[in-house]
Amino acid sequence: MRLHRLDLTAFGPFGGPQSVDFDDLSAAGIFLLHGPTGAGKTSILDAVCYALYGSVPGARQNGQGLTLRSDHADPATRTEVTLELTVAGRRLEITRQPPWERAKKRGRPGTTVEKAQSTLREYDPAAGAWKSLGRSHQEIGEEITQLLGMSREQFCQVVLLPQGDFARFLRADAEARGRLLGRLFDTRRFAEVEKRLADRRRTAEARVREGDAALLADAHRMQQAADGTLDLPELTPGEPGLADTVLAAAAQARSTARERLTIAECGVLAADSARAAADRALTDVRELARLQRRFADAQDQARQLAERAGEYEETRARMERSRKAEAVAPALELRDAADAEHRRATDADARARARLPREYADAGAAGLAAAARRAAQDLGGLDAARRGEQRLADLLAERDRLDRQERADEDALTDTEGWLAAWEATRTALRQRIESAQEAATRAEQLAERREPARRRLAAARDRDRLGQEAEQARRRALASAERAAEARAHWLDLKEQRLDGIAAELAATLRDGEPCAVCGGTEHPAPARRTAAHVDRAAEEQALAAHQRAEELRTADERALGTLREALAAAGAEAEDAPTDRLAAEVQEVEAACALARQEASDLHPAREELRRAEQEHEQRVAAQREAAVRVAARVGQRDRLEQERASLERELAEARGDAPSVAARADRLERRAALLTEAADAARTAEESAVRRKEADGRLDEAAFRAGFDTPRAAAAALLDAATHRALQRRLDERHSEEAAVRAVLAEPDTAAAAARPPADLAAAEHTATAAAERLRRAASARDAAQRRCADLERLSARATDAVRRLAPLREEHDRVARLAGLTAGTAADNDRRMRLEAYVLAARLEQVAAAATVRLRRMSSGRYTLVHSDDRAGRGRSGLGLHVVDAWTGRERDTATLSGGETFFASLALALGLADVVTDETGGVRLDTLFIDEGFGSLDDQTLDEVLDVLDSLRERDRSVGIVSHVADLRRRIHAQLEVVKGRSGSVVRRRGGV
After folding, report:
1. What are the backbone angles phi and psi of residue 11, rounded to the nearest 5°?
2. Mean per-residue pLDDT for 459-487?
3. E strand or H helix at 951, and its extent?
4. What is the mean pLDDT of residues 352-368?
5. What one-character-per-residue DSSP string does 424-472 give?
6. What pTM value is reported for the model?
7. Which of 13, 53, 452, 749 is in Cβ range 3.0-4.6 Å of 990 for a Cys bridge?
8. What confidence tier does 472 reach under pLDDT thresholds 50, 70, 90?
9. Which of helix, strand or coil describes residue 649?
């Protein structure tokens, strides 16, 4: 990498634009960048770093780039850094503008922040111009990092060589050296390996612990299931031997559980035999007690039957009297029925006489019947009068009907006369509507004929406007195509001419020593033509020709399309007759509106005709109704006279028939009710007389039946009778007595029962207690056996699960042991890692050993062969080893720590270390050549001889075509180094000046 030019504007302390020509400064190999403190020497290095990476080194990078802007700059000037460099054979130009807070435009108050901008360009030697490679911050950063092969931190340590950092590096402990070397050599992948191994170890350990926890949980379940027979020691997950301990304890618990199960099963067999014997004894005792109880119950029942013997005799006698009284029952029922019938007849006769007038109160049945016949005869004489009264009502109704018809005819005649009076005007108006609708229909047809041509003209006008625009666009495309075709033709002709100019070089490329030339025929070719950078071969010419042909085809197609559009435009213009589209649209709208209005008016033709037809029909109907009403009026006059004559005759006849009643019907109703009452009373009196005779006959028959049955009076026979329920109850009582007596005799006659009664009383409670105790012993034995079976099953299940868990955990334990060994080894905590060196430290130690070897080459020259840097992997106290750095003093032959070097020795040792580190990092990052280096400060601590030696070492870097820029304010360096860049500070900002020469 070689820097060519740096341009600054409003950056850091530089208020105005400044330019640094590194090509001019690098011609001497070593150049000095000096100036007073705070002038901005380091800001130039910051600008180089910012141009490459978009940020500045260390703590100076903050505020998102806003603090990079110079406080001396004009508010309207934007901060910008442009760096031109060559890297990997490519010449690049990087321009970066950090965020910029500026005043708002157009006079608005306040400020706004413009975003940062970046551009990357590459110089094309063939074209002699710069070409853009991108404007994205991310893309530019990735491109630069890929080309340089190092990050910003590596660049700042390798190219900008901060001496203070390396002085601290010499005196730092292993951890601090590890952090710096880790950033430079990017050993994150080794740290990631350590982390991944540690994570895998923790994961494997967690899985093993999880499996051990599950195994311990099963062990505790087995301990609970074993009911105290399992002695389990205190175990923790991850403890060695845990699985073997759990499996051994499980086997012991299973053996003990099987022994206890065998004992429990034997106990169940013994208890079951004892319970069976107790149950048999209890059954025998219960049978004895039942027989003794049966005999005692039979004796008690016999005593109770003897005590109730009087009650039994009384019931039997009552049943006998009831049997005799049953012979008198029919006569009693007949007498009761006759008495009830007589009472009903007497009551009915009394009620019928109560509704009659007083003159019939003492009349007999015959007198009442004669009075009823007389009332019926009077009622028959009123039939003609009743028909006359009905006829009179019909005559009155007919007269009312004639009155209603007369009023209706008068209303109809009045309405018809009014309607007929307006008939002529109505008919004239309807005929005018029909004529207007017919005229509108004719007008609509005429407008429809005008509408279609107007629409066609409007469509043609719109096509004309559209085609005009398309034709204009096609014309522009045709012009552009023609221009491109002309350019393609000119380019092809130029390439063809260039190829003809360089055809000699093209032919010379085919020449072979000893073969004749195709032009001159000579076999010697002393000075064949050479191809220049601008040579054009056949492929380029053919490609240009093909481009020219394509452009010609495109131009022809565009012109053909333009011709088609112009023809269509001419046809549309002829159809539209050059009339404006707006006027044609207005005409079409006017014709369509008039046509719609005419059609709307013409739509009234059919309704008007129908209304006229209905009106004419109504006219005919009203005239006919008027004539019919006149005929009905004339007919009603004669009919009314006849009705009046008949009414007067009927009213005279009905006055005689009514008598003192309000009407004939009222008098007929009165006679009809009297006749009915008299007839009812005569029937009731006759029925009462007949029922009295029947009751007397029933009394005689009852007396005779009671005497034959042995009763003194009919009342005694009635008292002896029993109803059905009482009879059934008494009979059931007698039957139960007979059954009880038979049952008692049968029980007392049983041999087993009598023999049991002769034995001592049975002790049922003792037998039941013995059986209950035997059953309880059997239940406890069965419970113990079931518990033992469950215990064995649980232990078998848990043991199988534990065995399976141990088998599954075996690969996990092996993996955990393997990963833990590797993790401890890479982390430096394993016992076989004697130096407690981490993997990352091991890799960095190798890099540090390379850096020390590279630095020693220059340190020997700077120290006149006295000092040598060596890497040490000894442990420092209780810390870890691997990153120690010592210096060997050739004068004393002893190795000591770098912290014991003096100030000047520390400077040139750190300089040698920085240069060696630059070489190693360069090789590590892909061998990108670093042609420009900067060394910042530290030379003031050297004496003249050492300073000469250091400068000789730096001057030797030119042998590799490098240039070294020294940043220092030491005055002696200004005398020794001629190529200088001075930074001068002032009130308006700093400026750079070129001093000295090659």
Report:
1. -115, 125
2. 86
3. helix 944-956
4. 70
5. HHHHHHHHHHHHHHHHHHHHHHHHHHHHHHHHHHHHHHHHHHHHHHHHH
6. 0.40
7. 13
8. confident
9. helix
Helix (H, G, I), strand (E, B) or coil at 30: strand
Distance CA 358, CA 187 (A): 148
- Kindly list the distances between the CA atom of residue 414 and the CA atoms of 226, 418, 556, 628, 629, in Å, as whole numbers in the listed order: 123, 6, 96, 14, 11
Question: pLDDT tens digits, residue range 502-547?
Answer: 666 666 666 666 666 655 555 666 666 566 666 777 788 888 889 8
Is the pLDDT assigned to residue 639 strictly greater than 60? yes
> pLDDT (tens digit, 9 = 90+) per residue, 75-131?
888 899 999 998 878 899 999 998 888 887 766 777 888 888 899 999 888 888 899
As a whole number, the mean pLDDT across the chain is: 76
Q: Are strands 980-984 and 991-995 parallel, antiparallel or unpaired?
A: antiparallel
| Closest to 670 (Cα-Cα) out of 393, 408, 382 | 382
**CA–CA separation, 822 and 194 (whole Å):** 9
Residue 509: both structure tokens together: 């490329």
- Please report how the helices 423-501 and 383-421 are oriented relative to each other, as an axis angle in degrees rounded to 10: 60
CA angle, corner 917, sides to 913 and 922, nearest 5? 155
- Write the single-letter amino acid at 145: T
Q: Whole-angstrom Cα distance, residue 751 to residue 749?
A: 6
What's the Cα-to-Cα distance from 575 to each of 214, 471, 563, 578, rounded to whole Å?
96, 18, 19, 8
Q: Residue 700 and residue 335: Cα distance in Å, rounded?
A: 9
Q: What is the pLDDT of residue 63?
A: 46
Work out the pLDDT band at 171, boundaries 50, 70, 90.
Answer: low
Is residue 823 within 8 A of residue 232, CB to CB? The reply is: no
Q: Provide long-range contacts, Cβ within 8 A and 24+ apart, for 491-494.
A: 491/544, 491/547, 491/548, 492/541, 492/544, 492/545, 492/547, 492/548
Q: Residue 898 is encoded by which pair of tokens? A: 């770098």
HSE on the CB side for 507, CA within 13 Å?
A: 15
Tokens representing residue 644 in the block: 């009046």
| Nearest-angstrom CA–CA distance, 599 and 759 | 132
Q: CB of 243 within 8 A of CB of 215?
A: yes
CA distance 283 to 285: 6
- Rounded to an integer, the average pLDDT of 139-160 is 76
pLDDT reported for residue 346: 77
d(CA 650, CA 666): 17
In this prediction, residue 376 carries a pLDDT of 67
Q: How many CA atoms lie within 13 Å of 464's alpha carbon, on the beta-carbon side? A: 20
Using CA atoms, how far apart are residues 825 and 834, in angstroms rounded to an integer? 10
Nearest to 161 by CA among 52, 65, 68, 42: 42
Q: Residue 527 gets which letter from DSSP? A: S
Burial of 358 (0-12, 13-18, 19+ CB in 10 A): exposed
Helix then strand then coil, % of the chain, to nearest 5: 70, 10, 20
In 821-920, where do the E strands start and end?
Answer: 867-872, 884-889, 894-897
User: Do residues 565 and 471 make contact, with C-beta atoms less than 8 angstroms apart?
Assistant: yes
- Residue type present at position 519: V
Percent of all residues in the chain with a pLDDT value above 90, rounded to a whole number: 3
Statement: residue 396 has pLDDT above 60:
yes
What lies within 8 Å, CB to CB, of 502 at 6+ separation is 529, 531, 532, 534, 535, 536
Query: Which DSSP string corresponds to 157-218?
Result: HHTS-BHHHHHHHHH--HHHHHHHHHHHHTTHHHHHHHHHHHHHHHHHHHHHHHHHHHHHHH
Residue 106 in tokens: 């157009």
How far apart, in whole angstroms, are the C-alpha atoms of residue 505 and residue 523? 17
Residues 6 or more apart whose Cβ sits within 8 Å of residue 158: 150, 184, 917, 918, 921, 922, 930
